[in-house]
Structures are given as C-alpha cells and as structure tokens.
Write a structure and sequence with these properties.
- One of its GO terms (molecular function) is DNA binding.
- Its main location: nucleus.
- It is found in: Chromosome; Nucleus.
- The chain is built from 27 helices and 26 strands.
- By secondary structure, the chain is an alpha+beta fold.
- The chain has a domain of 203 residues: 3-Layer(aba) Sandwich (Rossmann fold), CATH 3.40.50.
- A 6-stranded antiparallel β-sheet has the order 2-1-4-5-6-7.
Length: 1225
C-alpha cells in the first residue's frame, strides 16, 4: 500500500497477536489520513475497535469482557490458544517520521505495558499517552480543560473558608449574648437583697406551724395506743372461744362429707344397675320369643325335608328310565352303522377311471338332449321337496306341542308342590305371628315410639324450615355459589377420602362475635380446599381445568410448612381479653387443623383496636411484635401495615352463616327422608300381603292361558297335515311322468355303457347308490333326533335335582337345631342375668335408705355447730374492726408526723429537736404541691406517700423541743379549734409567700454570676478578633484558586463554544444551521453542566432529545470536531457513525472529512455504507474464517489511485496495478 506523507503525529500500524478473534499475529495498516474499516456483521470489526481501546489504556469493563484473560483468542469457549496476547500501536511523529511503539499485553491474567519494547508502569504509560494528547480518562469539558487539577485544593479551601466564617459569626453572637447577660445579672443582684428579708419572716412562721401540727399529732398517737392495748386483750379471748367452735365444726363436717360421698356413690351404683336392668329386660324377653319362633321354624323345616325326600324318590325313577332308553337307542345306532359298512363292502359296484370319465361324458350329453324335461323335472322335484319339508315341519310342530303340553302338565304338578310348600310357609308365618302377639305390648310400645318420633321429626322439620326462612336459606343460591358448591361436591365424589372440603366448611368460630376477626385473618384462605397430599392437589387442578371450573386454591396437608403455636401467647394478661385466633376456632379434622394453623399462624385477636395496635407495634411491654386483629376486623401487622374492616369483609363473614344455612338444608332433607321411611315401614305389611296374592293369581292365569293356546294349536295341526299329503301325491304324479321322459333319453344314450358294466339301465346304478345313501342318512338322523330328545329330557329331570333340595333341607334342619340350642342357652343366661340384677338393685336401695338417714342427722348437727361458730366470728369481727380503726388512727397520725418531718426536711425548715436528727428521714418523691407550705390538707387526711414501718420506727426517736411553741397552741385540745389555729397560721404564711412571689424569686447568687460574666466577656472579645483574621486569610487563598480554575476552564471552553457553530454549518452544508454551547453556571461553570443545543436547517428550535437519529449524529460530530480543534488528538476513531444517516447526510459528513477534517487529523472509521467508505483514502476489510471460535482475517486496500473512478466502475474493470495493490495481512 502506498504510504501517505506524514508531516505530523499519526497512527501508522497496529500489531495484534491472539487478541480476541485475531488468532496468531496480524499487522494492520499502514493507516492513512482517512481510513475506513469495513466487513460483514460478526467478522470482528468491533474487536479491532477493542484492540485500539486496549492499547490506549482503556479499562477491562469497556472491552466487553469480564476479565483480562478472556481477551485471549479461544478463552470465551475455554479453549485459549495461548497464555498471553498483546496489541502494539506504532505511532509516527515529527518531520523526520520518527516512530514510537506502545504495547499492552495480557500475561497470566494481568496487564503488561511497554514503550519501545521497554516495560513501564501504568502511570508512566498513561503519562506518555498524555504527551501526545491522548487522555483516556477525559470524558467531559472539566477533564479536557484540566481544570480538575485544582479541584482538590478548591474543595479544601472552600470548606475551610465556610468553617472560618461560621466560627466568626458564632463568636460575634456569643459576645452579644454575654453583654445581655451582664445587664440581667445587675438587676438580679438588687432583687436578691430585698427577697432575703421577706424569706426570713416566712421561715419563722413556718417553724411555729410545724411545731403546732407535730404537737397535736403526737398527742393523738399516744391516746390511741393506750386504747389499742385494752382492745388486743379482748380479741385474744374471743379467738380462743372461736377456735374451739371451729374444731367441733371441722370434726362433724368430715364425718358429713364422708357419709355424703358414700351416699352419692350408692346412688350412682343404683343408677347404673337400673340402666343395666332396662337394657337386660328387653334382651331376656327377646331371647324367649326367639326360642319359641325357632322351635316353630324347626318343626316346619322337618316337614319340608320329608316332602323333599318323597319327591326325590319319584324323580330318581324317572331319571333312570330315561338314561336306560338313551343307552338302548345309542346301541341301535352303532349296530346300524356297522350294518351299513358291511352292505357297502358287499354291494358296491366299482368302476375304473376310464368308465367313470365315460359315465360323466354320457351324463352331460343326456342332460343336453333332455334339457327342457330336466328343468321341468327339477322344478317339480323342488315343489315335491318343499311339500315334504312342510309335512315334516308340521309333524315336528305336533311333536313339540305334545312335548310342551307334557311340560306344562309337569309344571302344573310342580306348582302344586310349590303351593303346598307356600301353604306350609304361610302356616309357619301364622304361627310366628301368634308368637309375636304374645309380645304385643313390646310391639305396641314400638308403634307408640314410632308415632312419637314422627311427631318430633315433624316438629324439628317445622323449626328447621323456620330458621331457613329467617336466614333466607330457601332462596335460590347465586349462580357462582352454586358452581362452587357443585365443584366441591364433584371433587369429593371423584377423590373420596382425599379431598376434605373448603376450610370455611371444616371449622367454625367458637362464638359469633369472633366472625369478623377470623374472616380478616383467614381472608385469602377461607375458600381454599383442604386435601391430603400435593399429588391429590395436582390431580384435582387437572380435573378442574378439564371440567372448565373456576381456579381454586388448594392446601395439601403434607406440603404445608406450619410454624408451631407459641404457647406463651396464651398467658398474656395485659391487655385483657387477648386470645390466639387459632384457639377461638373449632375444628375436628386433623388435616384441617394443620391447614388452619398454617392460615392463622400466631395471630392474636383483641377486644379493641388500641390493644391490637399495642401488640403489633411493640407498645404492650412484650419482647416481640405480633400480628393482631380487633373484633371489628381491623388488622395490624408487625411491619406497620394496617387494614380496616369494610362492608366487603362483613359480606365475606356471612360465609359462616351460609355454612349454617347449608347445614339446616341438609338437616331438613334428612328429616323428610326419615319421615318418609317411617311411613313406608307402616305400609310394608299390607304391601307384602297384596303382592303375595297378586303373584298367585298371575301364575294361575298364565298357566291356564298357555294350556288353552297349546291345545288349540294341537287341534289345528292334523287337517293341515292331511292337505299337505294330498298335495304331495299330485306332485309325485307329475314328477313320475317327467322322469319317464327323461329316462327314455338316458336309456338310449347309456345303452352301450350299461351293456359293458352288466346292468339293465343307468338308473339301476344311480338309484341303488343314491337310495341306499339317502335311506341310511335318514335313519341315522332319526337316531340322532331321538338321542337329542332324550338328552333334553334327562337335563330337565336333572335340573329338578331332588337330592340337592333334600341336602339343602337337611342342612337347614341341622342349622336350625344348632341355633335352637344356642338360643335356649342364651335365654337361660339372659334370665339369670336379669334375676341377679334385680336382686342386686334391691340390696343397693336398702343401703341407700340407711345411708340417707345418717346423712340427715349429721347435716342437722353440722348446721347447729356452724351457727355457733358464725356467732363467735361476728364477735371477733366487731372487735377486730374496732382494733383496726384504732390502728388506722395511729398509722394515719404516724404518717402525718412523717409527712411533716419530711416536708420540713425538704423545705429546709430547721425545727428545734430535743433528741434525734432529721437525717434519719429518707427523701421520697413528692408532687410540686407538697413542696409548698400548704401541708395541713394532706396531713389531716393521712393521704401521704407510703412509708415502711422501719422508717416510722426510726422517726419515733426524733423528739421535738416545743419551748418555741406559744402556750395557747399547747392548751387547745378540741379538733375544731386546732384546725382553726392551723388555718390562721397558713393564711399568714400564704400572704407572706404571695408577696415574695410577686418579686419573681431573684437569683441569690447574683454577685457570683456578675463576676463570671465579666470574665467571659473579655475571653469572647479576643476569640472574635482571632476568627476574623483567620477567615480573611482563607478567603484570599480561595479566591486565588477559584480565579485560576475558572481561567483554565474558559481557555478550553471558549474556543470550543466559538468554533462549534461554524463546524455545524459546514457539516450541515447550510448557513441557517445553528449550534449553541453554554454553561449552566456562568460564575463557576465547572460546578454544573454544559447545555448543547442545535437548530437543524429549515427547522424550528427543538430540544436535543427530540432530534432525529441523523440530526443527533451530525450534532455529536460537530461537538467532537470542535473539541478536537481546541486540544487535537493525533487520530480519531469513529464506530459506525453512518448507521443513523441517510445518503444525503452521509455525503455531507464525508465531504467535510475529506475537505476539512482530513487536513487537521487522522480519521479511522468503522463504516457499513458504501456511500461513506468510498470517500476514504484506504480500506481495511475484516472477514471471518469459519471455525468453532470466530477467527478474523484482514485485507487492506489503497484507494488513492481511484479517486477519479466510481466504485462500481472500479469493481467491473480493476486496473492491473490496483489489483496488485490488494494484499492479505
């Protein structure tokens, strides 16, 4: 290939070894100023693009592989051809055509970088690339302008500047606050001095108030304790008396309970024996009746046995005679067959083969000459045969009718025997009826019970119908419900014992108030179908699809993953009324229990929404959260999701009522069926009697009719036979005349043949042979008919097997005798058991009467003792009540004393003490009002805080010094006067406190606070000055770096922005085209984005996203060429930029590259369209080699010699020089 003159840096050649689809070593190039890479899809064009990206330092993720080793040829199919691969870029630069090679390879899964054969680090490699203006990391203006070099320093200084300004502002605010605080401290100091004077007056008044209350509280405690000592002695005496009465009651009560227990035990035993007796009495009566009944049956069976034996003797004689007759006829038949064989041997005329042939030839000749006569003779013979056949038929009919008459007569005889047997059965039944009448009372009782049961069932039926009416149960079900019910009925029929039913039908809420809550929890599983295994569920689903039913949800018991029930949830006390949803549902089926547990889980049901919310959101004090539902159907889940009850939920809850309605409907049908059955049983006896008479009448009528018909037919047969015989004689005359004519012709033709074989005429031969054969066949047939007839008669007699019947009757008699013995034994046992039960019942009743008398006596004695004990208890209760009242007074006053001491300690009132210390008093939690001076109300009611007895005992050692208390306060004893004096002191204290309150409680440490404020004012002034100096210095540094960063960005951005419009016009070949490039942030453009918009020729302005694919491509190329113009790279690599371009735009882009861009840069494009790549200086063709792993081949072609020739002309007539220029790489 001809090399272009290189006056500036450009890509010269690429060397590839085992890189992706390029197996082995390939040298691609040299590349011209405008080189196009072409080839079919899948040939490896993109792999060549990846090779260029790879050698320029692109990351692995951008090379369409997961790891570096996948770049080796064959690695994607786990058949790498080598352990390494490499790509070398030979770069030519300078006027002298200097060459520099950049090599990047993969060896043992890692990258290797070389420059001119010398291995370097990746940083050195990238630095060398940047030296020739190849920035692999440059993706936008920010990086291309290199303003990002200042980013780290810019960000650091900006943060420091913001922090310094914040510190300055905080110090300034702090200094203002201190000045305000100084003014407030001076005012507090003046108020504190005035406040202290008034405070001292209040303390004196409070001390007198506390001493006054303590004095009268201790006086009342002393008086109450003296009364308690006397009351305690009285209670001790009363308790001793009560203990004696309780001992007596306990002793008698034990005897009473023991006797009562024995009494109830005897009562239970009597009830059991009466129950056993009620059961045993019918059994004894039934056993007796069964013995009598079986005795009658046994006598009847013995009579039937005698009758059967008599009939067997008669039938046996008839059978022997028929068998003997059959043997005789079979013997005659054998003798006749032997006679025929002997006659055939003696009389047979044997002809030679020649004579037989001659006979057949003459016979044919005779038939031809006497053809008409023979036809008439044949016709007459056919009539003759027909008449004979008719006579034989009528004779057979006569014989059959005679046999049928005989059979009917025998059947009449047999019917008579059956009638005798039936009469015997009737007699036996009548005797059984007589036996039953002996137990008429029991039967009448059953009849009454049946009527009563019928009445009860009718009543239940009316009640059920009423309930159905109330529940609208009798109304027609909706079509959908009917379909669903039909579906489950069919499934249970097709899969019995495997489909259990819908979950809603297998369980029931324990109470109606739980219906909404249970419906909410089971909502999506209520109508699910429960089955035994997953296999059953699959079969059922297939059946539903086949029958075109709606889809259903199945819960197979063996496939459900069920979490165990948490038993601790059953012990929840707070909130009250919490239950497991599983526990408020009744279910019996084990598989349904598992399905229900799967649907419910550990969900809880609560009385109120607030309780459910606490359990679900962790506010109930429990360690975990739980799914909870309120009675109104509001559901709270652990995740925080809440769903409320709705009208739809109430509608679904009616499923439980629908289930009850279905149950009522089934009950109604069962009741109607049972009533119908009872009615049928009452009509049963009458129906049997009617049917019995009907059968007897039908049998007799049928037999009489058949006998009359047979006799009438038998009388009609002789005249018909006579007519046929006369007709036969006429036909025989006609046949005789025709035979004479035929014989004359035959005698003439067979005259010589007959002379040869020694007979008078041919008929002598034919008649003898045919006649003998016919006679023999007729006689043998008569023998067969007679034998067959005898067989039928023998079979008929055998069917009337008398021996079998005798055997049956004997077995019946034997069975009845055995049953009779067992029933007699059973009767004896039942009677004995009845007698024993009656005697045992009488004994127990006597014991019960004796024990009842003992119990009554003990009960009277016990009641008297209990009354005495209750009287003693009431006396003790009255005394204890009085004692507790005194104790309450002591305790209340002790608490009042404690409260006064506690309040004095909290309020820091120094009470004068004779002994002890206020340090023995513990601090308790008091309300704010207890800290006020109004202590009289709380102490007088004794509602102070709970105090231990140990604390009260410690405080009893504290003694007051009442020398400061005025005499008038000590001498007053009346409670009203004490209270009035207390109120007066409280009033004086309140007036003083109100005056103090109006002073707004000044700060008693105002002097100290004033000194502290002055010190902090000096410190804040110094800190503020330091912060101001620091902020000013950092701002100056930041402004400097900001200015430098802006300058560097604009140095790159402005030329691109200025040039892009001209380039877009040149690419569009239209001066009306416009391109705009502007920064979003004009002050600091590198912080925000850059807006790029274009107006296509002849169109209005539209956003970039709304441009067509070709317009976007032109706009993108304009931006690329403008950027390249500011910071030119040595070459451009463009991948299929003509894909979205039409032929017009392709021509524009190609013209721009050829006219303008090619002079400024080297361009390498992957192109799919001839209109574009035919403008290139050189072509690199990529083609695939067929193989398991795609292998690419390379062709290069120089187009500089063909610039004046079209591509089509070049293809048709390639010059020899051009053909020689194409080489294979």
């Amino acid at each position: 290939m001809k090399e272009a003159k290189l006056d500036k840096g450009m890509l010269h050649t690429l060397e590839l070894e085992n890189f992706k689809s390029y197996k082995g070593k390939h040298t691609i190039g040299p590349f011209s100023r405008f080189t196009a890479i072409i080839g079919p899809n899948g040939s490896g064009k993109s792999n060549l693009m990846d090779a260029i990206s790879f050698v320029l330092g692109e990351r692995t993720q951008s090379l369409r592989v997961k790891k570096l080793s996948d770049l080796i040829h064959g690695a994607p199919i786990n058949k790498p051809v080598a352990k390494s691969c490499f790509v070398t870029m030979n770069y030519v630069y300078g006027d002298g055509g200097k060459t520099k090679s950049f090599t990047r390879g993969v060896n043992n899964g890692s990258s290797e970088f070389k420059i001119d054969g010398r291995q370097v680090t990746v940083q050195q490699y990238n630095q060398e690339m940047e030296g020739i203006n190849i920035f692999i990391k440059a993706k936008n203006f920010f990086e291309l302008s290199r303003s990002h070099d200042f980013q780290q320093e810019y960000d650091r200084l900006k943060i420091e500047m913001n922090k310094a300004e914040d510190d300055t502002q905080q110090n300034m605010n702090k200094r203002r606050g201190i000045a305000q605080e100084k003014r407030e401290a001076k005012m507090e100091k003046d108020e504190a001095e005035k406040y202290q004077i008034m405070k001292d007056n209040v303390a004196t008044k409070q001390k007198i108030l506390y001493l006054h209350q303590m004095f009268h509280c201790e006086r009342l405690i002393k008086e109450a304790k003296e009364e308690l000592t006397e009351q305690k002695k009285a209670i001790s005496h009363l308790e001793k008396n009560k203990a004696e009465e309780d001992a007596k009651v306990s002793s008698v009560q034990q005897d009473y309970k023991k006797s009562q227990k024995e009494y109830h035990k005897i009562e239970r035993k009597i009830a059991e024996k009466e129950k056993d007796l009620m059961t045993q009495r019918p059994l004894a009566v039934q056993a007796k009746v069964e013995v009598q009944h079986h005795q009658k049956k046994l006598e009847t069976a013995k009579k039937m046995l005698a009758t059967a034996e008599s009939m067997e003797e008669k039938s046996k004689g008839q059978y022997d005679a028929l068998v003997e007759r059959k043997k005789e006829i079979e013997q005659n038949k054998r003798e006749f067959e032997e006679e025929i064989a002997e006659m055939t041997q003696k009389q047979e005329l044997k002809l030679s083969d020649e004579q037989v042939n001659e006979y057949e030839s003459l016979k044919r000749k005779a038939l031809m000459e006497s053809g008409r006569v023979e036809m008439e003779l044949m016709s007459a013979k056919q009539v003759l045969d027909t008449d004979k056949s008719n006579i034989n038929h009528e004779l057979r009919r006569k014989t059959e009718h005679e046999q049928r008459v005989n059979t009917k007569e025998e059947e009449v005889e047999r019917l008579k025997r059956q009638i005798e047997h039936l009469q015997a059965k009737i007699k036996e039944t009548d005797e059984a009826v007589k036996d039953k009448k002996s137990g008429l009372g029991h039967i009448e009782k059953q009849v009454i019970e049946t009527k009563s049961r019928t009445a009860e069932l009718n009543k239940e039926l009316i009640d059920v119908q009423r309930k159905l009416s109330e529940a609208s149960g009798d109304s027609a079900e909706g079509e959908r419900n009917q379909k669903r019910n039909e579906c489950i009925d069919n499934l249970r029929r097709v899969f019995p014992d495997r489909i259990y039913g819908r979950l809603v039908d297998l369980c029931q809420p324990s109470h109606k108030r739980f219906q909404l809550a249970i419906t909410k929890v089971l909502q999506k599983h209520m109508m699910s179908i429960v089955c035994d295994t997953e296999e059953t569920a699959k079969d059922a689903i297939a059946y539903l699809k086949e029958q075109r039913y709606q889809p259903e949800t199945f819960l197979p018991a063996d496939a459900l993953d069920v979490n165990p029930i948490n038993d601790k949830l059953r012990d929840i006390k707070k909130p009250a009324g919490v239950k497991l949803v599983f526990d408020v549902i009744n279910v019996n089926n084990q598989a349904a229990r598992k399905a229900l547990q799967f649907a419910c889980g550990n969900a809880l049901v609560c009385e109120h929404q607030d309780d459910a919310k606490q359990l679900a959101y962790g506010g109930s004090g429990l360690p975990d959260r739980y799914k909870a539902v309120a009675m109104d159907g509001t559901l709270f889940q652990q995740s925080g999701v809440m769903s409320g009850g709705s009208a739809d939920l109430k509608q679904k809850a009616k499923k439980w009522d629908d289930k009850v309605v279905r149950g009522l409907r089934e009950t109604k049908n069962k009741l109607i069926e049972e009533i119908t059955t009872l009615s049928k049983n009452r009509r049963k006896e009458l129906d049997v009697e009617v049917e019995r008479n009907k059968i007897k009448e039908e049998i007799m009528e049928r037999l009489e009719t058949e006998l009359e018909t047979l006799n009438a037919e038998l009388n009609m047969l002789p005249p018909r036979i006579k007519d046929l015989e006369e007709k036969l004689k006429k036909t025989e005359g006609i046949v005789g005349g025709l035979e004479k004519q035929s014989n004359a012709v035959a005698d003439k033709i067979f005259e010589q043949f007959c002379a040869k074989i020694g007979i008078r005429n041919i008929r002598e031969y034919e008649d003898r042979e045919l006649r003998i054969r016919q006679e023999n066949e007729d006689k043998l047939r008569s023998f067969e008919d007679e034998i067959q007839k005898l067989k039928y008669e023998i079979d008929y007699v055998q069917s009337e097997d008398g021996g079998k019947k005798v055997k049956t009757e004997k077995e019946k008699v034997s069975r009845l005798e055995k049953e009779f013995k067992e029933l007699k034994k059973k009767e004896k046992n039942e009677a004995s058991s009845l007698k024993e039960l009656e005697q045992s019942l009488e004994d127990e009743k006597e014991r019960l009467a004796e024990k009842k008398e003992i119990v009554q006596k003990l009960e009277i004695e016990l009641n008297e003792l209990k009354k005495a004990a209750q009287a003693a208890t009431r006396e003790i209760t009255a005394a204890e009540k009085s004692f507790l009242g005194l104790e309450s007074v002591v305790t209340r006053k002790q608490h009042e004393r404690h409260t006064l001491l506690h309040s004095a300690k909290i309020n820091q009132i120094n009470l004068p003490l004779a002994s002890g210390s206020l340090a023995d008093i513990d601090y308790d939690d008091f309300d704010d009002e207890d800290e006020d001076m109004e202590t009289d109300a709380s102490t007088s009611n004794g509602n102070g805080p709970s105090v231990s007895q140990e604390q009260l005992d410690r405080e009893s050692h504290i003694k007051m010094n009442y020398s400061l208390l005025p005499r008038e306060n000590k001498e007053v004893e009346d409670e009203d006067n004490v209270k009035k004096m207390t109120d007066r002191l409280n009033k004086e204290i309140n007036e003083l406190q109100n005056s103090i309150s109006s002073l707004n409680a000044p700060n008693l440490k105002a002097n100290q606070r004033m000194e502290e404020v002055k010190e902090r004012e000096a410190e804040s002034t110094e800190e503020l000055e330091t912060a101001r100096k620091k902020a000013k210095k950092i701002r100056q540094q930041f402004e400097k770096i900001k200015t430098e960063r802006y300058r560097r960005f604009q140095e790159f951005f402005d030329p691109v922005s200025n040039a892009i419009d001209d380039i877009y016009k040149q690419l569009s070949r239209n001066s009306s085209a416009q391109a705009f490039l502007g920064a979003d942030n004009m002050e600091e453009p590198y912080l925000d984005g850059v807006q790029y918009n274009c107006v296509a020729p002849g169109k209005r302005f539209r956003p970039m996203d709304n441009l067509s694919g070709g317009e976007k491509t032109i706009a993108a190329l304009a931006l690329l060429f403008a950027v390249h113009g500011r910071n030119p790279a040595p070459f451009f690599v463009l991948d299929e930029i003509d894909a979205a371009l039409d032929n017009t735009n392709i021509g524009k882009v190609a013209s721009y590259i050829c006219e303008t861009a090619r002079e400024q840069m080297q361009i390498i494009v992957i192109s799919l369209k001839e209109e574009f790549y035919n403008k290139a200086d050189a072509l690199i063709g990529i083609y695939p080699h067929p193989a398991a792993c795609t292998t690419s081949g390379v062709l290069t072609f120089d187009l500089t010699n063909f610039k004046q020739i079209g591509i089509n002309e070049m293809t048709e007539n390639v010059p020899p020089a051009a053909a020689a220029a194409a080489t294979t790489a």
